Amino acid sequence: MSSGVILLDEHLLIVGLNSAAEHILGVSQRRARGESLLKLVDDDPEMRDILARVIATDDQYANEMRLAPTEVHAEERIVDCRVSRIATDDACVLVEITDVTRRIQISRENALLMQHGAGRQMIRQLAHEIKNPLGGIRGAAQLLERQLDEAEQREYTDVVISETDRLAALVDTLLGPGGPPNKQPVNVHELLEYVVKITEAEDQRSLRIRRDYDPGLPTIDLDRDQMVQALLNLVKNATAALDGQGTLTLRSRAETNFTIGSVRHRVIASIEIEDDGPGIPTDLQDSVFYPLVTSRPEGTGLGLPAAQELISRHGGLIEFESRPGRTVFLVRIPLDQSARAGDE
Fold first, then answer.
1. pTM of the predicted protein model
2. Quick one: 193 and 337 in the same domain?
3. What span, in angstroms and rounded, lies between the C-alpha atoms of 199 and 191?
4. What is the helix (H) or strand (E) element at residue 6, kind and residue range?
5. Are residues 238 and 150 in the same domain?
6. 8: which strand partners?
7. SS (H, E, C) 279-340
């Protein structure tokens, strides 16, 4: 069975569990027997409430809950949990748990891909509607400027030309670098260090930077300039959130049998940029990859959609997790870029 099954006695102590439950809880049946289930799930208040209600009412309850990292599982996991009454010689409560972490991640990845597609279409429409008349406005302002004798009047045409150029630059930023990626073997860690050097040169405030690199990660065929821009956007966002105080963590890992959208890859590189700042506001978390969405007054809301576009050109995806005290953006890139050659 892929679902974990746990049997509890009237004191909510474990009297038996199957191998799937051993794996999900990260504990052997020998160690778990006689232990409190609540102790194994960090006395989760939802689980405690469900167990109490089942004991009191004999009804069946179901809920989704999060399991904290364990010695076996380094990451937090999401499980579907069903609790019901049973009647056997030594058990009175049956708990069924199913690890749905990856299923939820895949659903979220698909939502991000759809969001990126919608955002890219919005960008192209916006660029088309804005950029075409800008050339005409700028040309008309230049012609008008030649007809004006007074310097004071020419100041107004200068403003028109200047603002037109600013809007054109904004549109170019929305569209991002053009053309297919120029892929060459790249060391991901060297890219990250280069991005840190740029960031430190631009912002003199000192941050604690922690590195947790996987030394076994091989070089990957990537467009260096596009990858630098994408990672720079993410690092700048993190440093802006920290506002000069806190820790920026750069992490790399290799993940096996990983699905990005509908494509399963044998091995991918996962590049993580984590900060311990205040987190992304809850009301923005479903739309941060749309253009012009930002929580900062000085922000443009272009950094994340541009980064997502550049990573998508390498068959990858940017995901994120955020709560107060921990925000991490995860850049997922297939190690084998040869399959993307015909897609560019």
1. 0.58
2. yes
3. 12
4. strand 4-8
5. no
6. 14, 93
7. CCCHHHCCCCCCCCCCCCCCCCCCHHHHHHHHHHCCCCEEEEEEECCEEEEEEEEECCCHHH
DSSP state of 89: S
Q: Of 175, 200, 233, which residue constitutes the final position of a domain?
A: 175
Q: Give me the domain span that covers residue 339.
A: 183-343
Q: Provide the CA 306 distance to its chain's centre, in angstroms.
A: 14
| Mean pLDDT (whole number) for 73-87 | 79
Structure confidence by residue, pLDDT tens digits, 183-223 = 899 999 999 999 998 888 776 567 889 999 999 999 999 98
Q: Give dist(CA 136, CA 53) in Å, integer.
A: 70
For the stretch 85-111, pLDDT in tens is: 888 878 888 888 888 777 767 677 666
Are 118 and 154 members of one domain? yes
Q: What is the pLDDT of residues 215-232, one digit of tens each?
A: 999 999 998 888 888 899
How many residues appear in the chain? 344
